[in-house]
Amino acid sequence: MRNIKLIIEYDGTAYSGWQVQPNGLTIQEVIEQALAKMLGERTPLHGSGRTDAGVHARGMVACFKTARTMPLRAFREGLNCLLPGDIAVREAHEVPLDFHPRFDAQAKHYRYTMLLDDLRSPLVRHTAWRVRGKLDIEAMRAACRLFVGEHDFAAFRATNCAAKTTVRRIFSMELVQEGRLLHLDINGSGFLKNMVRIITGTLIEVGHGKMSAADVARLLKGGDRQHAGMTVPPQGLCLMQVFYPAQSGE
């Protein structure tokens, strides 16, 4: 038996998120269907986590087990021949049988992209969220620094989040401007449901002068979700990379 790790890129616009569910087509379901065609049997695919409807990925990690002896390149190329144009397997690696893409993950890098323009842009409508009005980016950067470290992110999770603890560690968080696009890059040990999108909404409030750094500091001491910013739309969010210990095969 072999454990095959896939690095997957996808445009989540047309899907109801990563995880299989009864009420909509998902990324996991489409890849499992392709695996069944390629291997001749149903094969469960285990992901490094979930992404919501409309969210994208450049580096989703998933694994499946198989007894097939085909070369790694054949797994990648075979799946890509069967997958639609908005999903692609970028890499395939063989990893130890006890490797699990979710439980062995040490950190994740998410990026949220904003379009700073009063006019809409058809070319980035699926990969960025348009923010109107001038933003104080330096004030937003100052607020970003407050998030780094271990904090209680109770104010930055969806109301239906089922996580047992709201404490998470953020390793780095920065804003990178690229022309009209403003990227928020967050690296952390783990994330609560909608956490990145609520943090982004809160930073936008800071950028518009509606919240201060002191307000953010209070929220990070176990504040109320109602006092944080909005949950920004999903299309600007992308899972960039998942990090693992060297011995896991990453």
UniProtKB/TrEMBL annotation:
Gene: truA
Keywords for this protein: Isomerase, tRNA processing
Quaternary structure annotation from Swiss-Prot or TrEMBL: Homodimer.
Lineage of source species: Bacteria, Pseudomonadati, Thermodesulfobacteriota, Desulfuromonadia, Geobacterales
Function: Formation of pseudouridine at positions 38, 39 and 40 in the anticodon stem and loop of transfer RNAs.
Active site: 52 (nucleophile)
Enzyme Commission code: 5.4.99.12
Domain of life: Bacteria
NCBIfam families in UniProt: hisT_truA (TIGR00071)
InterPro entries: PsdUridine_synth_cat_dom_sf, PsdUridine_synth_TruA, PsdUridine_synth_TruA_a/b_dom, PsdUridine_synth_TruA_C, TruA/RsuA/RluB/E/F_N
Substrates-to-products reaction catalysed: uridine(38/39/40) in tRNA = pseudouridine(38/39/40) in tRNA
Protein name: tRNA pseudouridine synthase A
Binding site for substrate: 110
Domain Pseudouridine synthase I TruA alpha/beta: 7-104, 143-245
Family: Belongs to the tRNA pseudouridine synthase TruA family.
Pfam families hit by this protein: PseudoU_synth_1 (PF01416)
GO molecular function, one term: tRNA pseudouridine(38-40) synthase activity
Record organism: Geomonas propionica
